[in-house]
Design goal:
- The chain has 294 residues and is α/β, with parallel strands linked by helices.
- It has seven helices and eleven strands.
- The chain is globular.
């Protein structure tokens, strides 16, 4: 275990005999260490290793640990009915297909002409979809009057607890990886400078294209980026990461599971994963919110 890098390193003469094609310059051991593509099972009982940290699973979920997890969750009724992340279509559109998580986020982040409150509690004057990769978030919201910047990461599931944990690993990994782009003074984003001037699409051949990518606010990529960077330069700007989870995590189900004498493996995994992500966000001055099913 490398305490400085907070990661394990494998040593295996046998795995060293396998070389990555086509150049045959990297051994399987080196690639596994680079990607950390393995799981560690500590010999100590009630111990778990995840994301470079050790955790004691003997903690009682009925006490402060369970309360902490529940406090992170903001239930939204509509999210329990959403199992499709981006939708599908064969023609160009002005928004994502109805019933998809992207369509819900797009609609909920925008200010309503009738003054209706957003399911997220706030709306934004500037919104852009940064998906697909390279990206720093699925959606970015900013508001100059409130001095706020929000990175939104979306993930939809099918309600299966085991799959839900897998989805959480994926979206929490995306969150931590992109925290650097929320830091004070950042003036860089992944992808080309004028990416946001292009329509959104994950597969142009399918015909599923959404225009415009900038959903509201500054009308071109350069101006949007300038306003975003201006907010990120300010030490007083509020910075947040939102996880918006469609049919992936239920607050009511978690509350019931926490009261159990024997918390499930999925509950413990979710707790430590979200706790670790929360801690890493707070360590760089970023607030962490989770919107999930009721």
């Amino acid at each position: 275990f490398d305490a400085m890098k907070r990661e394990y390193k494998l040593r295996s003469p046998e795995l060293d005999t396998y070389l990555e094609l086509p150049k045959k310059q990297v051994t399987l051991t080196e690639r596994l260490n680079q990607k950390q593509a393995f799981r560690i099972i500590p010999a100590s009982p009630n111990s778990v290793y995840a994301s470079g940290q050790f955790y004691d699973t003997s903690v009682s979920m009925k006490a402060g640990a369970g309360t902490f997890l529940l406090d992170l969750l903001s239930p939204v009724a509509e999210l329990s009915e959403i199992s499709d992340e981006k939708g599908s279509a064969t023609t160009g559109r002005k928004t994502w297909t109805k019933g998809s998580l992207f369509a819900f986020i797009d609609s909920s982040m925008k200010r309503k002409s009738n003054g209706a409150l957003s399911p997220f509690g706030r709306s934004f004057s500037g919104i852009v979809c940064d998906d697909p990769k390279p990206e720093c978030a699925d959606f970015i919201g900013m508001d100059k009057s409130r001095a706020e910047v929000v990175f939104v990461h979306a993930k939809a599931g099918n309600g299966d607890a085991r799959l839900g944990v897998s989805k959480l690993y994926e979206v929490c990994g995306q969150t931590v990886k992109n925290l650097a782009y929320l830091r004070m003074g950042n003036d860089d984003l992944p992808g080309k400078e004028k990416k946001w001037d292009d329509p959104w699409s994950v597969d142009e051949a399918s015909g599923y294209v959404v225009t415009p990518r900038i959903r509201c606010g500054p009308g071109d990529a350069i101006t949007f980026r300038e306003q975003l960077f201006d907010l990120l330069r300010r030490p007083t700007t509020a910075r947040e990461v939102w996880l918006v989870l469609g049919n992936t995590l239920s607050k009511a189900t978690l509350k019931k599971a926490i009261s159990s004498a024997q918390p499930s493996a999925a509950l413990l995994q979710s707790f430590y994963l979200l706790s670790s992500t929360y801690s890493q966000c707070k360590s760089v001055g970023v607030d962490f919110k989770i919107f999930c099913s009721k």
